Amino acid sequence: MYKLLGEIIIVLLVISVLLAGIALAVSRISLNRNVWLAGFFAEVLDFFYLPVKFFFFRLSDTKILDKWMVSLKNIAHMDDFARTKKRMIITPHCMRSLDCPASSTKEGIQCLSCGKCVFTELKKDARKYGYKLYIVTGSSFVKHIIKGGRYDGALLIACDYELNKVMMGLKGQDIVTYGIPMLNDGCFNTRVDYDRVIETLEMFDTEHVSLSGGTDV
After folding, report:
1. Which residues in 106-152 belong to E strands, given as ranges?
2. Does the predicted model carry a pTM greater than 0.85?
3. Rounded to whole angstroms, how far apart are CA atoms 29 and 64?
4. How does DSSP classify residue 36?
5. CB-based contact 155:180 (threshold 8 Å)
6. Alpha-carbon torsion 125, 126, 129, 130, what sign?
7. Which phi and psi angles does 31 have, rounded to 5°?
């Protein structure tokens, strides 16, 4: 009995390692081209995230894992995101100017379009392409934003770790996510490839849907 149980456990461990290994290989390939079964392999890596992250921590860099997973999830979510109607952009406050005059509310930083940072243009482009822009200072703001159930799509801008974290956190919330990694990490003076942001907005633009989530921030 115990021998059989041990053999079953060993088989399951071997299958788990092989499955996680294949999922990692697919996620790495997803950086350069489209892959099949992206959604399935993304779920596999979400399930094994902690042990795989420990492996990367010991032998490589956990940022690489998050980068691969975000790339895989973007491929998996692309078609579903294209079908969303009420979209928001969630961005980190670390991209704003150090002398930003905007104040913070329960829905994040309220951009004043002062022209000192990228948010002046991003605010206008969000409006143009039918998104509501949120500039948040932490995950608690994200929880508040999604609480009202006003959106079915979230375009995320953040470092790879935060992108992957929010993507996992929003699973089961009826919100489809798509992530754009920033060019650098940090608590201030972070940057994003704005050309990539515009390319992404245009890629998912169908008919310049008007905002339905409220007024601009």
Report:
1. 108-109, 131-136
2. yes
3. 13
4. T
5. yes
6. negative
7. -65, -25
Helix (H) or strand (E) holding 139: helix 139-147
DSSP character string of 76-106: HHHHHHHT-SSEEEEEEGGGS-TT----EET
Full set of structural domains in the chain with CATH? 1-82 (no CATH), 85-217 (3.40.50)
- What are the φ and ψ backbone dihedral angles of 173, each rounded to 5 degrees? -100, 10
Closest CA relative to residue 87, chosen from 120, 125, 39, 42: 125
pLDDT tens column, 157-168: 999 999 999 999
Instruction: Give the pLDDT confidence of 3-57 residue by residue, as tens digits.
Output: 777 778 888 899 999 999 999 999 999 999 999 999 999 999 999 999 999 999 9
Residue 97 CB neighbours (<10 A): 16
Buried b (16+ CB within 10 A) or exposed e, 9-31: eeeeeeeeeebbeebbebbbebe
Q: How do residues 67-110 score in pLDDT, each as one tens digit?
A: 999 999 999 999 999 999 999 999 999 999 989 999 888 888 99
Dmax (CA) for the chain in angstroms is 72
Tokens representing 130 are 């039918």
| Tokens found for residue 179 | 């992530």
Contact 94, 190 (CB under 8 A): yes
Which amino acid does the sequence have at 61?
D
Contact between 117 and 97 under an 8 Å Cβ cutoff? The reply is: yes
